[in-house]
Amino acid sequence: MPLVVAAQEEYVAQGVKTVMMKLPGADFGYPACRLGEAIELNFDILDGKYERLEYSIRHCDSDFREDNLSFDEFAEGFDRRPLDESQESFNTLQQFTHYTLVIPNRDIKLTISGNYIINVYSDDEPDEPILTKCFMVYEDDGSIITARVEQPFLPEYQMQCQQLYVDIDNSRLRVYNPEKYMKVYAIQNGDHNTRRPLKISGFLHEQVQYHLNDGGNIFDGGNEYDFLDAKDVHFRALGIDAILYQNNRYHYVLTPTTYDEAYFNNGDINGAYYVKNDRGFDRDLESDYIDVTFRLKYDPFTDYDIYLYGALTNWQCIPEYKLAWNGETKLWEMTTTLKQGLYNYKFAFKDSTGKIVGYSSGNNFNTQNDYLIMVYTTLTRDRGERLVACKILK
Q: For residues 350 and 357, is the Cβ–Cβ distance under 8 A?
């Protein structure tokens, strides 16, 4: 199940579920941490079958292509090590093994900033990863970045889009040719399909400005996400038509989503999800797996392919998440397996070329999005591209 994150592909094998990379203790968030601080990878392997796993880490350039740095140039410790921390689920109908990896640990410490990729391998196939995940390690928490979101300057974008204005304080970086040696990227809500480089518009004293009005720093506004509250299988929350018990598993049937371009504010978490069981004490081990049927009211004769979309699909449009027309219910439907928790989602429409051409909820300037701003530099003295700063703009 590949996801293109710039040039790098993320991959999750069959049976590997609920892959999250975030700060330890956080419910959700961007896969990014400050240099010297911790970041945590969590995932499950279903059926309760323990597997001996190993992991390796590689340094990448700003487009997530593996660079030519050797392990010793970006880390201290050992290159390929066992992933030892695992626990079995309990009080769940679906048996699974939960794995956790915290970086840095006793085996590895990252010594430079930048983009990274982690590969997880099984003893059964030591050369083929069962899991590939991208993450970022930055040096500064954004103090050199000044950014704001405004209504676009160009009239054709004003009601549906949002425009980023970014300034970088170069007095501390001392990059003498920012157009050549500095790169600035932005990403909306963690959706890597929105990741793009920003173009320099000018300089003011020691500020590098990214203020172009050519559309390059304009993002579709989107809309607030639909949500699924599956934290308690004994409580039918808003948006759930039925909770059934089938084949030794709970099955949620959701209220059909209606295509609507009007703005609505429902207090979402910007397409993310988090794991939670309201009746358990350990969210990782006591949150069960459930089947969920997502449904959409839409033209049965559309030329578009329709997909479930959000962090719950790893921002992918692949066959596993494709909706099919149900002639009995007169709805577009698909069923997938999720871990108990709270999920944001929407539906994406793809044309015959494979391009996403729209979503089930339209675009609006008023939508509450967040943006991650990333600043990379490449200087002669550096080993690889440094991620010198990150800042989340809400």
A: yes
Instruction: Enumerate the domain spans of the chain.
Output: 3-138, 145-222+368-393, 226-359
Q: Examine the pLDDT at 118 and tell me if it is beyond 70.
A: yes
User: Do the domains spanning 3-138 and 145-222+368-393 agree at the CATH topology level?
Assistant: yes
Backbone angles phi, psi at 385, to 5 degrees: -85, 125
40 vs 98: CA distance, rounded Å: 13
Contacts of 38 (CB under 8 A, 6+ apart): 23, 24, 102, 103, 104
Contact 344, 224 (CB under 8 A): no
What is the architecture, at CATH level 2, of domain 226-359?
Answer: Sandwich (2.60)
Cross-strand bridge partners of residue 218: 163
Bridge partners of residue 335, in order along the sequence: 293
The CATH architecture of the domain made up of 3-138 is Sandwich (2.60)
- Concatenating the DSSP letter of every residue in 115-136 gives EEEEEEEETTEEEEEEEEEEEE
Q: Is the dihedral of CA 55, 56, 61, 64 positive or negative?
A: negative
CA 295 to chain CA mean position, Å: 23
pLDDT band per the 50, 70, 90 thresholds, residue 6: very low
State whether residue 139 is helix, strand or coil: coil
In the structure encoding, which two tokens stand for residue 220, read together? 């579709």
Q: pTM surpassing 0.90?
A: yes
Q: What is the pLDDT of residues 65-85, one digit of tens each?
A: 999 899 999 999 999 999 999
Fold of the 145-222+368-393 domain: Immunoglobulin-like (2.60.40)
